[in-house]
Amino acid sequence: MNSLNISQPALYQEVAERLRLRIFAHELPPGAWIDEQALAEQYGISRTPLREALKVLAAEGLVTLKPRRGCYVTELSERDLDDIFPLMALLEGRCAFEATQKASPAELARLTALHEPLERHAAGGDANAFFEANQAFHRALQELSGNRWLKQVIGDLRKVLNLTRRDSLRLEGRLKQSLEEHRGLLAAIRARDAAGAEARMQAHLLSGRAALAKIHAAQIPSSSPSRNTAEES
Amino acid sequence: MNSLNISQPALYQEVAERLRLRIFAHELPPGAWIDEQALAEQYGISRTPLREALKVLAAEGLVTLKPRRGCYVTELSERDLDDIFPLMALLEGRCAFEATQKASPAELARLTALHEPLERHAAGGDANAFFEANQAFHRALQELSGNRWLKQVIGDLRKVLNLTRRDSLRLEGRLKQSLEEHRGLLAAIRARDAAGAEARMQAHLLSGRAALAKIHAAQIPSSSPSRNTAEES
DNA sequence: CTAGATAATACTTTATTCATAATTATGAGC
DNA sequence: GCTCATAATTATGAATAAAGTATTATCTAG
Question: N or C: which end of chain B has fewer CB within 10 A?
């Protein structure tokens, strides 16, 4: 894919990646103002590459640039989530459909192997590890779909979804439920039931949205103070 | 991405928009090298805002940044088109589905009014005007879907598709065929046949891909350069 | 005491300058 | 005469500086 881009990555890309991680970790929470010069001297670079990195992040939707006002981490509304999850269901559903049709027996075996950690970490109750294994499985499916642009679009939306806290898996029973959905999905794929796999993937995503909504409903949305960057050392 | 920028847009955004138009007009054709300093002094600005604009365009996929090598207008391969069009069919199909279900009678009337120019310009054989009217109709449908992120993703992909020449409508009979497809689509929407509208929209997009393929097959019987363009994020 | 206006401060934005890396051209050697 | 290596030129990438705009705080007037 990246034919000539094997050369050393530009500084602004490195910075963009580091900022992404800090945003995903909620070290830079949604709504937080991004202090350019503080961040620049923290990274030991000038503000120029930092600003270029912010342009990239803005195009990805992770931050919002307000002209003459500065840069803020994007805040997702419930409305946004209600828009994005069905869209992801559509796209990842298509992935499941295509992958079911195109996967070779060897690839099917690899996919099955990727499912095993899900079983293990669900049994162990390790939500973080389950989350990672879940991501790996979904990514593999996207790879098997064979459509680079489909994968790209899903990846972009997933980045945006990472703005929300990932603790929906800690909802009572959600881990087990998600595992059950994955079992059904894998079974449909292995049975070469493309339409079934698509439907199960869609249900899986929408079920994830429902879990998130339950979390948000439970947490009191009274005060959401958008604090600035938390100091950590 | 999208902020409520009622204030004056930043210079780099203006530059990005002007470059977009030049790219879409093929004044900067796919594969063309973008000369930063030449363009900067042509616009009477410094290289800094120009470079920031290029970062935005790179995130949109319109240009490809090769570290230490410069910036080039993205070239789409046939493979890319084979990936993107089915994806657009899926997304715009969903738009048609949702819009059919959600549109009020008044909105339905407005949509019907937007269809009229298509009839007129098809009869007049004005491919450019037909293209514009077609875009307007599709955008209205995306608006009616009520899903801002769906609209956003479609818009992003449409930008990329604008990298290709828009002369597929000049293919013998394509104008008439496209009109027929639109008639069927509108009829399904007005009949509140959401599934039918979705199917017709999907067929419409795939039909557009086929027309483009026919153009390319006719124009390039010799060697295809097929520079593959990788997307990064 | 409150509200509005002005001034000051701070941050974004753009420009200019400098350094580094890549490519091309020229010269020399085989 | 052709190929390879080295040097020079050009363009990209980063940093620093300067300017313009927005926001906030303070002071004055009603």
Answer: C
pLDDT at A220: 60
- Residue B110 φ then ψ, to 5°: -65, -40
Is the per-residue pLDDT at A217 higher than 80? Answer: yes
Which chain A residue has its CA at the smallest distance from B228's CA? Answer: A1
* Under-50 pLDDT residues of chain B: 1-6, 223-233
Mean pLDDT in chain B?
90
For chain B positions 115-154, those within 8 Å of chain A (CB to CB) are 147-150, 153
B223: Cβ contacts below 8 Å, ≥ 6 apart: none
Average pLDDT over chain A, rounded to whole? 90
**C-alpha dist (Å) from residue A227 to A67, A78, A177:** 21, 20, 34
Partners of A48 on chain B (C-beta within 8 Å) are 48
Q: Cβ of A55 and B147 within 8 Å?
A: no
Residue A213's CB is within 10 A of a number of other CB atoms, namely 15
Q: What is the pLDDT of residues A73-123, one digit of tens each?
A: 999 999 999 999 999 999 999 999 999 999 999 999 999 999 999 999 999
Residue A44, token pair as written in the block: 């030991």
User: For residue B115, what is the enclosing H or E element?
Assistant: helix B105-124
Pick from B7, B67, B87: CB nearest A67: B7
Whether B189 contacts B114, CB under 8 Å: no
Query: Distance between CA A164 and CA A133 in Å, rounded?
Result: 19
User: What are chain B's domains?
Assistant: 11-73 (1.10.10.10), 78-219 (1.20.120.530)
**Which secondary-structure segment (H or E) carries B16?**
helix B11-24
Query: CB pairs below 8 Å between A and B: how many?
Result: 110
Please report the pLDDT score of residue A166 as a whole number: 79
B8: Cβ contacts below 8 Å, ≥ 6 apart: A67, A68
CB contact A158 to B (< 8 Å):
no
Q: Give residue-wise pLDDT tens across range B28-54.
A: 999 999 999 999 999 999 999 999 999
Query: String of b and e for B158-181 (b: at least 16 CB within 10 Å)?
Result: bbbbbbbeeebbebeebbebbbeb
In angstroms, the CA B86 to CA B107 distance is 27
A219–chain B Cβ distance below 8 A for any pair:
no
